[in-house]
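User: Please predict the structure of the protein below. I'd like the answer in structure-token form so I can feed it into my own downstream comparison script.

Assistant: Understood. Taking the following sequence of 209 residues as input:
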Amino acid sequence: MLVLDESGFPKRGSHSAGVQKQYCGATGQVDNCQVGVFLSSVTTAGHALIDRELYLPEDWCTDAARRQAVHIPQTVCFQTKPELAKLMVQRAQCASLPISWVVADTVYGHSTDLRVFLEAQGFSYALAVPANEVVCIQTAQGAYRLAEVASIEQQVLNPQDWQRLSMSQGTKGERLCGWAILPQFLHGTVDGCHWLVMRRCLDAPYEKA
């Protein structure tokens, strides 16, 4: 399994390549930081970081003097985080790394281009999407519904559609959550391969993913 994720590195100054005010996962807020996109390989034996790319904001890419001061090569141009993620997956392919699944959070799941690329390579994937992602799903009655993910629970799901299943093994036992799944209408069909999966906390049902 390949895991795509990013991490922020807080900085005090303004001279490190790519530094600016942006969301920093290390602090959980917008901070002056650098951001790196990372690729991990996960097996039953463990996990390892195998690749990384520095995210270079567009402002940096168009500032020739600033680029020269920190020795950013002329060949480096602006790339979004999903584009950097795609580049690293391609490098993993070229290295003949076994890849069955690719997983990532909403930064990458929101990218249609990345999803299409992974599908074209034949990789299974589980990518989170933001609450405002518009999807077309099939209801239990067979009807199609186009809606934002956040509104689907109220419009489509019934209480009996939620199942209580384990998310993982925690320090105090199984971490149980509520789960619901709906077939996704994609590429002109419901093919049994594409699904919208929703998860909510049992003690705070308003917290969903």
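That's the full token string. The helical segments are 58-61, 64-69, 81-94, 106-109, 112-120, 149-155.
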